[in-house]
Amino acid sequence: MTAADTAAENTDDINALIGKEFPWLASDHVVAAVTEDRLVMEARSKSLERGPAEGTVSGPAQFRMADLAGYLLIKHRSGADCSVRLRTVSLSCLDAPAPGVLTARATMLRHSKRNAEVRVDICDARDNRICAASLLYSVR
After folding, report:
1. Domain spanning 3-139: which superfamily?
2. How do the domains of the chain map onto residue ranges?
3. What is the block-wise mean pLDDT of the chain (140 residues), using blocks of 10 residues?
4. Residue 137 gets which letter from DSSP?
5. Where are the transmembrane segments (predicted)?
6. Res 85: pLDDT
7. pTM of the model
8. Burial 16-54 (b: 16+ CB within 10 A, else e)
9. Which of these, 100, 111, 101, 109, lies nearest to 133 by C-alpha position?
10. Which SS3 state, helix, strand or coil, does residue 2 take?
11. Strand pairing of 115-123 and 101-111?
12. Which of 18, 35, 69, 74 has the fewest CB atoms within 10 Å, i.e. the most exposed one?
């Protein structure tokens, strides 16, 4: 088995996990790449919650995307059977996203026996960073 086969297997497993645990998100949120310490997830912005009068993607929708990316990265690293709970989050919405696909890039900053800290940057279709989040999870 090649490294490319293993990577495809990993993304297939993570995308199946989205379908199992979050079926309402599975059709619009797709993990494109995953390693031990990084995950890249894409979401179609037209499927995300919008502000008033069909404005920009809302802050809560960006929060949900960041949380999902962090959750999936921890599940990939710790195993699908572990319990992952969000403890604290710091999220900054930096700019209004351009229309198109949003990309969440999650990076594992620290992973200990009971806690995991993840940084998530969300970029728009023009690859401009629109959101930065730091998330701390309890892992059991």
Report:
1. Hotdog Thioesterase (3.10.129.10)
2. 3-139
3. 58 95 93 97 78 74 95 94 97 90 97 97 96 98
4. E
5. none
6. 98
7. 0.91
8. ebbeeeeeebeeebbbeebeeeebbbbbebeebeeeeee
9. 109
10. coil
11. antiparallel
12. 35
| DSSP for 13-65, written as a single string | HHHHHHHHH-TTTTTTEEEEEE-SSEEEEEEEGGGS-B-GGG-SBPHHHHHHH
DSSP letter string, 79-134: -TTS-EEEEEEEEEE-SPPPSSEEEEEEEEEEE-SSEEEEEEEEE-TT--EEEEEE
Helix (H, G, I), strand (E, B) or coil at 140: coil
- pLDDT, residue 57, reads 84
Q: Which amino acid is at 86?
A: L
DSSP H or E segment with residue 1: none
**Which residue is listed with tokens 């701390």?**
136
d(CA 138, CA 140): 7
- Number of Cα atoms under 13 Å in the Cβ half of residue 103: 13
Note the pLDDT of residue 53: 59
